[in-house]
Amino acid sequence: MAEDAGFDCERAAEMVEELRSGFRTGRTAEYEWRVAQLKGLVKMIDEREDEIVSALHKDLNKPHLESFLQEISLVRASCLLALKELKRWMKPEKVPAPVAAFPASAYIVSEPLGVVLVISAWNYPFLLSLEPVIGAIAAGNAVVLKPSEIAPAMSSLFANILPKYVDNSSIRVVEGGVAETTAILEQKWDKILYTGNSKVGRIVMTAAAKHLTPVVLELGGKSPVVVDSSSDLQVTAKRIAVGKWGCNNGQACIAPDYIITTKSHAPLLIDAVKIALEKFYGKDPKESKDLSRIVNSNHFKRLIRLLDEDKVSDKVVYGGQRDEKRLFIAPTILLDTPLDSLVMKEEIFGPLLPIITVDKIEESFNIINSGTKPLAAYIFTKDKKLEEKFIKNISAGGLLVNDTTLQVASPHLPFGGVGESGMGAYHGKFSFDTFSHKKGVLSRSLGSEAPARYPPYTPQKLKLL
Ligand code: NAD
């Protein structure tokens, strides 16, 4: 049974109990169950792709190609990877046994945690919902998915179609906003993976603490891009533009938030980014079908407040046009925005791109490190020494050299934040590990005693050691 839009908060405890008793039968831990669910997800993607694309378009005006490349194909690839690797992931991992226990064997068993909760965000509503669910299923858990109410078409699509492809007695969708999420957060979960802003992250962590439930918090932050003058201008500009405006019009957790470059390089970079933008979206981006819209009027107003702040309103060097009715804000570049302006203090999460200039590119490290740790940090350079310094000195969830956002596409890299940008990580095997308990097992034979171990502790025994 799907827990649909009319989710009854009073039923939250009952729902978790149902899932827990199903989990206790051991069914979800079986390899065959996990495989059947993952195959169900692949089938759902293959049969329902048009509906998924259309929900993403309805919620975010997301272009078809972006939906496919940045959400659907990634989720499908993750299912296939889990299907391919699951046997290997589930295998107990042999480790050396301690000499004191000889003869013995030691190994680590990955066991499912139990009943887990995934709370996802609106900006990549398909990817951010299913990617963690894949990990939860692969690790053998019962799972509840709470999609974001800010992407209602995708939320309702999940509630309608997921139960047709997976075992609904152990995998549920609960739709709803604050009231429903609050009600389910009161329950005892064995793990919670939350994606969204850090204010709600704190609410989730506080609720989890009451039950000693471990959490993964996938939060955001201001992801900087350092541009060194040695980098190829045109390639750099295209890769910045596609990572910013080509990712849901900047409404992506790892989209470039701001650029730092040298004073002399900034005008060249700005011209190159303008050229890239006009190639991508034409002279009038409002008419482009390839640019997502701002998700709703709250976020529109939030972004306009950043753009119209007195300190920055005269810093716009490109774009700045807006149309509230169409939830449109043009790709906008700001130059030399003061570091104490709102646009440089808050995560932007939209199409505004401030450029900060410095005399020497190394000064960028201090600017980045004086803020909270970002989810991603980027550098464009041909200078290997500068690249090494950046990797050594910049702490962020993940780093990418000479491109933006593509780190998300590798299942071999952990995806997650550090400090204010989050805790815990997932993707690929990291998702499986995140939703597993690593149970250490030591197995001894009953022979081969070491008498020194047992009291009474005589001086002779001490000499034996
Ligand atoms: P959102 O508004 O969709 O909220 C996220 C989830 O929190 C939703 O499911 C929502 O129902 C729930 N929620 C909202 N208020 C709540 C409350 N008071 N109590 C309990 N639950 C509540 O998404 P958002 O927060 O606007 O997402 C944007 C933020 O998320 C940005 O900061 C972005 O960087 C970050 N983000 C991070 C990642 C990542 O992978 N690290 C991915 C996407 C977005």
Describe the fold and architecture.
With 465 residues, the protein is an alpha/beta fold. The chain is 42% helix and 17% strand. The protein has 16 helices and 18 strands. Strand 8 (224-227), helix 8 (233-244) and strand 9 (258-262) form a beta-alpha-beta unit. Bound molecules: nicotinamide-adenine-dinucleotide (NAD). Residues 119-123, 128, 146, 148-150, 177-178, 181-182, 195-197, 200, 203, 218-220, 253, 347, 349, 375, 417, 422 line the site of nicotinamide-adenine-dinucleotide.
Based on CA atoms alone, the radius of gyration comes out at 25 Å
The percent range for helix content is 40-55%
Distance between the ends: 63 Å
Instruction: Tell me how many strands there are.
Output: 18
Summarize the structure.
Belongs to the aldehyde dehydrogenase family. The chain has 16 helices and 18 strands.
Write the layout of secondary structure elements.
Blueprint lengths: L11 H13 L6 H30 L3 H27 L2 E3 L8 E9 L2 E5 L7 H12 L3 E5 L5 H14 L5 E3 L4 H8 L5 E5 L2 H12 L5 E4 L5 E4 L5 H12 L13 E5 L3 H16 L15 H12 L1 H4 L2 E3 L3 E2 L4 E2 L2 E4 L6 H4 L6 E7 L4 H7 L6 E5 L3 H10 L4 E4 L20 E2 L4 H7 L1 E9 L14 H6 L1
Parallel strand pairs: 3-4, 3-6, 4-5, 6-7, 8-9, 8-15, 9-14, 13-14, 15-16
Antiparallel strand pairs: 1-2, 2-18, 7-17, 10-13, 11-12
Bound molecules: nicotinamide-adenine-dinucleotide.
